[in-house]
Each structure stands twice: as structure tokens, then as C-alpha cells.
Amino acid sequence: MSQLLTIGDKIDIEIENKRNPHESKVLYSQVVEFGNNTIFIAVPMTKGLEYPLRNKQKINIIFYNEKGVFSFLAECVARKKVDQLDVFEIYQLAEPRKKQRREYFRLRYMIKSTIKSLEKDTFSKGLTLDISGGGMKVLADKSFFVGEKVESTLFLEEETVSVASIVIRSYKRTENNQFELGIKFNDIGEQTRNSIIAFIFQKQGELRKKGLV
């Protein structure tokens, strides 16, 4: 674990909603210290408020590094103090596994983008509605058909990335005559995917500090 997580690393804590998995709660914390087969984490936060964990509560720990996005199942042991700081001690129940593309966290965030058809002469400026390491939802000025191969370009703050993609959903918004597209990144290099994921984690952290997520 020490090769993947280090003190100070930011982590997400997913609390599963068994009745409706799509409404699972995501909290934010960071690694404070390592114990004997346990990890001490800061008190989790959500929308700027503390969210206490229960003893023996099962949680999923999600974290990102240069090797990708990883997760593992853990159990809350107890609330304690480390150097006068309130922390929770958690016990790792399973080895970290690299998350698959379908499991990538999706962030609601607007950035400029462009969509260029690889099958016909269509080009459109766009604005993302959400984005993940596996795809995005975007508002476009032009229409594209489901199954159409396109090149998606994302203007991240420090770099611009282009990805071969495919349109998996498309419908016209009658109120503004724009088109809402579901885009799947079809052929993406690991470095490009990691750049997108790093951007998502950065923005997630900024929103977290403002108490917006």
C-alpha cells in the first residue's frame, strides 16, 4: 500500500447506497498516518461539513496517482486523535485494484471543447456538462448521429488534448436548438487519460474547498 498511497494524499470515500447504487455518497478526506495494517485519515467532509463514520462501517477508498485510479474496500475501526488532530482509523479489507473505464468518476464541470466528425464535414464548438476518464456529455452547436466517429478536443487549463471518440447519445434541446451529446472516448492513450483524470481531481479539490461538492 505504501507504494500507492503516501501521507498527505487526497482520497475519496464512497459510501454505498444499497437501495440505489446510483445515489452512493462520496466524501473527501486525506491520509494522515499509517498504523499497523491500518490507515489514519482526516475526518471526511462533504459540502464543507464533517461526516462522521460509524465503527465497523464498510467504505470504499478511491485515490489517484500517476499510475491511474485505484480503489479498495475498508472498514472503519475507531475515531482517534493523531497529533491533536481528529482522525478515523480504517482497516484495509482488500488489495487496491485499478478502476476500469466504466467506473471512472464523472465530474459535472464546464470546459470548452470541439467536436470534429471523422466521417463527414461537420465541426462544432462545444461546452462540457460533465467529464470523466472514459467520456463526456457535451452541448454542441451542430448535430451528430449515434455511432458517428469523431475527434473530441478538450481545452484543459494547462494543456489541450484530442481523443478519437464515438457518439453514443444525441438529442436536440428544443429550448436553445443545441444538441446534447454523449461521447465515449474510443481510442485514448494512457497519458492522455491520466491528464484528464488529473484535471478532474484538481477541479474536484477546488470545488471541495468551496463546499460545492
Feature tags:
mainly beta; Pnp Oxidase, Chain A; Thrombin, subunit H; 2 domains; six-stranded antiparallel beta barrel; 1 helix; 15 strands
How many helices? The count is 1
Give start-end ranges of low-pLDDT stretches: none
CATH superfamily of the largest domain: predicted glycosyltransferase like domains
Strand adjacency order, main sheet: 1-2-3-8-7-6
Helix content class: under 10%
Count of the separate structural domains = 2
Estimated share of beta-strand residues: over 45%
Write down the Rg: 19 Å
Mean pLDDT: 87
Give the termini distance in whole angstroms. Answer: 27 Å
The first-level CATH class name of the largest domain? Mainly Beta
CATH architecture designation of the largest domain: Beta Barrel
Biggest pleated-sheet summary = 6 strands, antiparallel, barrel
Task: Report on this structure.
The chain has 213 residues and is mainly beta. It is built from one helix and 15 strands, in the order E-E-E-E-E-E-E-E-E-E-E-E-E-E-E-H. The strands form three sheets. Strands 1-2-3-8-7-6 form a six-stranded antiparallel barrel. A six-stranded antiparallel barrel has the order 10-11-12-15-14-13. Strands 4-5 form a two-stranded antiparallel ribbon. The longest helix has 20 residues. Pfam families: PilZ (PF07238), PilZNR (PF12945). Keywords: Cell projection, Cilium, Flagellum. This is C-di-GMP-binding flagellar brake protein YcgR, contains PilZNR and PilZ domains. One of its GO terms (molecular function) is cyclic-di-GMP binding.
